[in-house]
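queue> holo job accepted (MGD)
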Amino acid sequence: LAKTALRTAFRTCPLCEATCGLELTLEGRDLVRVRGDHDDVFSHGYLCPKAIALVDLENDPDRIRTPLVREGKSFREASWEEAFERVAQGVRKVIDAHGPNAVALYAGNPNAHNLSGTYLRVLLQALRTQNFYSASTVDQMPKQVSAGMMFGTLLSIPVPDVDRCEHLLMLGANPFVSNGSLFTAPALPDRLRALRRRGGKLVVVDPRFTQTAKEADEHHFIVPGTDALLLFAIVHTLFDEGLVRMGPIGEHTNGVDDVRALASSFAPETVSDACGIGAEQIRRMAREVAGADRAAVYARIGTCTQEFGTLASWLVDVVNVLAGNLDRLGGAMFAKGAAGAFNTTGTPGAGRGVRFGRWHSRVRGAPEVYGELPVACLTEEIETPGEGQIRAMISIAGNPASSTPDAARLDRALASLEFMVSVDIYVNETTRHADVILPAQGALTRGHYDIALYQLACRNVAHYSPPALELAPGEMHEWEVLLRLAAIAAGQADTPAEIIDEMVAREALRRAGNPDGAWEAVAHRRGPERVLDILLRTGPYDLSLEMLEQNPHGVDLGPLEPRIPEVLRTPSGRIELAPPALVDDVARLRAALARTRNGGVVLVGRRQLRSNNSWMHNLGTLRGGTNVCTLQIHPDDAERFGVEDGKPARVTSSAGTIDVPAEVTDAIMPGVVSIPHGWGLYDGANSNTLAPADLIDPLSGNAVLNGIPVTVAPA
Ligand SMILES: Nc1nc2c(c(=O)[nH]1)N[C@H]1C(S)=C(S)[C@@H](COP(=O)(O)OP(=O)(O)OC[C@H]3O[C@@H](n4cnc5c(=O)[nH]c(N)nc54)[C@H](O)[C@@H]3O)O[C@H]1N2
Ligand SMILES: Nc1nc2c(c(=O)[nH]1)N[C@H]1C(S)=C(S)[C@@H](COP(=O)(O)OP(=O)(O)OC[C@H]3O[C@@H](n4cnc5c(=O)[nH]c(N)nc54)[C@H](O)[C@@H]3O)O[C@H]1N2
Ligand code: SF4
Ligand SMILES: [Mo]
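queue> job finished
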């Protein structure tokens, strides 16, 4: 049999935020090899084991490739038309009887890596439900809230200018495993090593001695949940020792005196015991951040998914501002995205700012944040009877029964729904409860452009990857699936997706000011590509999709440049260093100072190199080895609780109990234990069984997944 010729395709990896360029080798429709694209303008050939596993992902026999409809306790394959018919019946029945809020929408993480994700908004508008939930409230929402309040939009998040930085203070992030988050920097481990090679210093603050800590100059264990205290003490020291020097951004900043007053009660000596870091060490950290020519503070998931997530996220940027590192080369800077960036639209230098609490969750009264409710509220909204109770759910690329708090209870709640439809590529903890599962197209059949991630990049880059494969027979574009669902939700199931798609594109063009000739220029395109083309043409650079198609390795738009005041979209047109809602929340932090630990143990999470949240660690090349679900525990604690290395330990919280093998290691702080999330379907146990749904950061609604009080015993 003649072998089909091998061919090469280049595309951006869709699996994490690093946006690495991949070189794919294809034989017919088969993906046979993945390598790093050495000519990629941003990643220069770097890649991680997850990208290699794309081959396994493409070929995985467990993948759903045909619509599935429920028949009793199992699924059977169905045609798209039958599946949509079932969805229309199920969704319309609930809306007609109980109103739009009876249908919830949950959007998971992969939407952020998929151009189709931009069409979620259309589905949400058609649903008109206030019950919109996403992985954002088990992830980065605190940073989006603090950045919105300080700088004016939900994606105005400064990132370390890592390639020119000489001192980086990093809290609650482990990029040697996770490759950066809210910080698009392919090959971040290489960039961090380069920082040290040119004489710079990397300081890591983490309750675990992580892979990143091993590669750092300095590591401090910190008591989980106390980062805001540490950062306040750094702010205190900056004022106390006369180290505040804001430089040119000073004249664009409000609220410095308010911050000084707030910080006065958080001296290093005051917070030291609570944080578990010596006062003199804290003072030195402050002096070094202020003293370096080019320094930045960066913090991620460990500081977000905790009790004081929004305060900690805010204080990171307060330190950046006060030490003169915001908007400065080598400091913390704003990217300028080429398409659809929130802080390049509207009037440069001022805007409407952000507003929260336009509605509240029914049971707990939690405020809406950027149009969504905390996913920690989802279970109670399904369980609690009454007007507005959730009776149906649509999940798109999400696995909340694994990823969100009190997972075992959510699992039961999902089983009680009248109707559920999922768009996914697997039957998993969540989608197994669906009445209909609609298969998402394979990753290689879609065009790719990271609209959100390039707004957080450490260089300005634009990179579009065309589909490497045509849709397979029976596959449907995911954007089309979303528009069909939107039509059903709007009660117009017969409206063809093309019609809605055209409305979406015309709306994007209207928002961009209807430039002459633009519609004609993009008219031959369809779906999110047409919208992307509009955004590129009307964005801050002179680009079009066609130009990106001619550059398969991406277009480098240069290093980050200072953007203040033009980048700001606050109503004042200034940086708000002391937003009132954040100031009000400080009393809660102060109260926490009085807490004593009493020998208790708290649980934190961790990520593993060969995994991706809940859905990739069962793939061939990622399975086994060090990729196992264990309870990391310090030798002192292991002895105290009678737990032995390799033997099962029982971990109990107010929400539940799980058994996992103990891994006794001094790479974790005494009084802290760690279990990775995303396990439980094939191997291991689901750590979110232990996360109580009532623990949230009040300003962002973000779940507290780190710093959960637990007890440990032999199982
Ligand atoms: N304890 C604890 N819990 C956590 C975290 C933690 O650190 N600790 N981290 C949190 C974070 S940061 C996140 S982002 C969330 C993730 O939370 P979720 O997004 O809810 O969970 P994922 O595991 O990412 O599930 C993604 C789903 O998308 C499907 N999928 C993959 N590709 C596609 C596609 O192209 N189209 C469609 N339609 N589906 C696709 C997968 O099969 C899977 O079901 O978990 C959170 N949960
Ligand atoms: N291999 C792999 N890569 C991934 C993912 C994956 O699942 N696997 N997931 C992707 C996703 S969705 C995201 S959001 C990013 C996240 O990327 P990162 O933010 O880098 O996430 P983690 O690697 O979990 O690192 C979080 C660290 O916070 C620490 N920590 C826990 N509690 C606290 C605390 O209270 N204070 C401090 N200072 N530290 C604390 C933990 O010990 C852990 O080392 O990773 C992405 N990349
Ligand atoms: S680091 Fe992220 S983007 Fe890069 S190859 Fe790995 S999964 Fe893909
Ligand atoms: Mo995430």
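queue> Residues 16, 109, 139, 171-175, 177-179, 181, 205-208, 210, 222, 224-225, 227, 300-303, 306, 604-607, 609, 611-613, 706-707 surround MGD (ligand 2) (CB under 6 Å).
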